[in-house]
Amino acid sequence: MELITLMKQDLRNILTNPTIILFCMIYPISLVLVFGFLFSDMYGSGNITSYDYYGVTMLFYLVLTSATITPTVFMEERIKKANVRIAYAPISRVQIYSSKLIVTTLFLGLGFFTSMVILNGFKIVNFGGENFGKVLLLYGALLIFTVTLGGAICTIVKREDLTNKVMGSIINTFAILSGIFFPIAQLRKICRTYCKLYSCKNDIRCNF
């Protein structure tokens, strides 16, 4: 019962945060449409269109970036005092952390998966055709990992801004070297060899 009460409070906090709403409800479709349109000339032929490529990679990038949303749910300045009061209440720390991780994962997952269903349903992006369910599971597993990682780093660092700077730098580096913003096949051979060391590249290939 205490866990349910905490989850309701965390959900209210998320719903009153416009940044999180934009991140999971507006950004996915907007980024796919913008990048797909801008780079449509690069994918004129072949089975994969620019919308297919950036549909997969932009959603992948946003799921990775979810690691920077968790610190906001944990330690946003607006709700910091309320979280401190909860921390000193006779409630298990496991329930406090679990509530924030569960609500964050479910809310972001709902936003991302709704965007994927819309893009796939209107034939804008092909998320694997008959394997669409498997693609959803892959993104879901990655989302659980990134949200949990963001929460873990946040509890260690204990500062929202510093956690987001650290996680943001790491995620953007992985994104660039994994071919999220542009195909790594366009890079020189030495760069392609270096990029093969990053598992994100292999995860993205699973979607194609």
Walk me through the structure:
Helices cover 74% and strands 0% of the residues. 31% of the residues are buried. The longest helix has 29 residues, at 93-121. It is built from ten helices and no strands. The chain starts with a helix and ends with a helix. It is an all-alpha fold. It has one domain (2-207). The mean pLDDT is 82.
Produce the secondary structure layout.
Elements lengths: L1 H14 L2 H21 L11 H16 L4 H6 L4 H8 L5 H29 L10 H26 L2 H18 L11 H7 L3 H9 L1
Helix pairs in contact: 1-6, 2-3, 2-6, 3-6, 3-7, 6-7, 7-8
What keyword list fits this structure?
208 residues, mainly alpha, 74% helix
Q: Give the biggest beta sheet.
A: none
Overall tally of structural domains: 1
Radius of gyration (CA) equals 18 Å
Number of helices: 10
Shape: elongated
- Level of helix content? over 70%
Q: What is the terminal separation in angstroms?
A: 43 Å
List unreliable stretches of 5+ residues. Answer: none
DSSP strand tally? 0
The secondary-structure element order is HHHHHHHHHH
- Give the mean pLDDT: 82
Short summary:
This protein has one domain.
